[in-house]
Specification:
Layout lengths: L1 H15 L3 H12 L2 H22 L3 H4 L2 H23 L16 H15 L3 H12 L2 H27 L4 H24 L5 H8 L1 H33 L1
Helix pairs in contact: 1-7, 1-8, 2-8, 2-9, 3-6, 3-7, 3-8, 5-6, 5-9, 7-8, 9-10, 9-11
Length: 238
Amino acid sequence: MIATILLSVGIVFLAELGDKSQLMALTFALRYRWWVVLGGIATASAAVHLISVGVGYFLGTALPTRAIALVAALTFLAVGLWTLREHFGSDDETAEPKPPRGTTAPFLVVLSAFLLAELGDRTMFATAALATDNSWVGVWVGSTIGMVAADALAIAAGILVGKHLPEHVIGIGSGLLFLYFGTASLLAATLPDLGIGTGGALAILAPAAAGIALLIRARRTRRNSKPVAVAELAEELR
């Protein structure tokens, strides 16, 4: 049992290094409290890996992976647009801090995003393959620990980055990242022949366009605010 757990931890941990789940964990850590993100990831990982070791290797043939990928892509795009809408045009670094966010809604967002992202992922198939020749309990425990450990590194990186950036910058950056994840997932599901490299390169266009729109909006806002400031100054001088 111990050997199975250690084997599963090592395989899943190495498989998750540099994977999209780490980037998602980092992005969520920029937006929400770290323990909420870690709890959502742990819950989603335990659920997905329990399914994979329970059903086994043939689970992949029964899952509508393309439909799941489309739902995941739409979820990422919705989260990205919602985040950008919340922070759109917010460039005042001296603004009063917002009240602490709740934990229920962020937890559900993280949980659902990771569930959709990991269903049909390579880690799920690796876990199912391990369960065919090893104890399913050991594989389940080890794979869950391995994924949580890998994503915890990304969460720590998100915490370090978040300490040195204003809240509005973090919000806009995380929104753009989710637009990238959503576009990349959408291209992979609808145009699988593109390949990972080409799809990833094309996916950059979505956050780039959104970033340009943000810059244009910010410049227009600053231009419109200048006459008001001048008028207020003239009124004070009178």
